[in-house]
Amino acid sequence: MLQFPFEFTGWDPADTFVFIFYVATFTENFGAFEKGRTYQSVEVDLPAGVLRAYDVDGVTVLVEQNFRMSPTD
Q1: How far is 24 from 10, CA to CA, in rounded Å?
Q2: What's phi and psi for 69, nearest 5 deg?
Q3: What is the pLDDT of residue 1?
Q4: All residues at 6 or more sequence positions from 33 whose CB lies less than 8 Å from its CB, including other chains
Q5: Sequential DSSP letters for the chain
Q6: CA nearest 22: which of 71, 48, 47, 14?
Q7: Which distant-in-sequence residues (6+ apart) come within 8 Å of 69 by Cβ?
Q8: What is the pTM (predicted TM-score) of this model?
Q9: pLDDT at 50
Q10: What are the φ/ψ torsions at residue 28 (nearest 5 degrees)?
């Protein structure tokens, strides 16, 4: 199961391994993302290992953070 520190109101798959989450609020600090900050959309690109937050236009990247995945129990 994927676990990122944000809550959201909805989501859509953009591709098999790329997901878009809407009205995402971060519940804890995550690299460049600050706890309590809300973004209109957050893209999780699993193959690239990148989280991107977009402005209301859905085109302008406000924040970008690389991440690594690791297996858990």
Answers
A1: 9
A2: -100, 145
A3: 56
A4: 5, 6, 26, 51, 53, 63, 65
A5: ----SEE-SEEEESSSSEEEEEEEEESS-BTTBPTT-EEEEEEEETTTTEEEEE-TTSSSEEEEEE-------
A6: 14
A7: 2, 46, 49
A8: 0.89
A9: 96
A10: -160, 165
* Residue type, position 21, single letter: F
With a cut of 70, say whether residue 8 has pLDDT above it: yes
What one-letter code names the amino acid at 53? A
- In this structure, are residues 6 and 25 in contact, taking their beta carbons and an 8 Å threshold? yes
Span 14-67, pLDDT tens digits = 999 999 999 999 999 999 999 999 999 999 999 999 999 998 888 899 999 999
| Cα R_g (the chain), whole angstroms | 12
Residues in the chain: 73
Mean pLDDT of the 5-22 span: 95
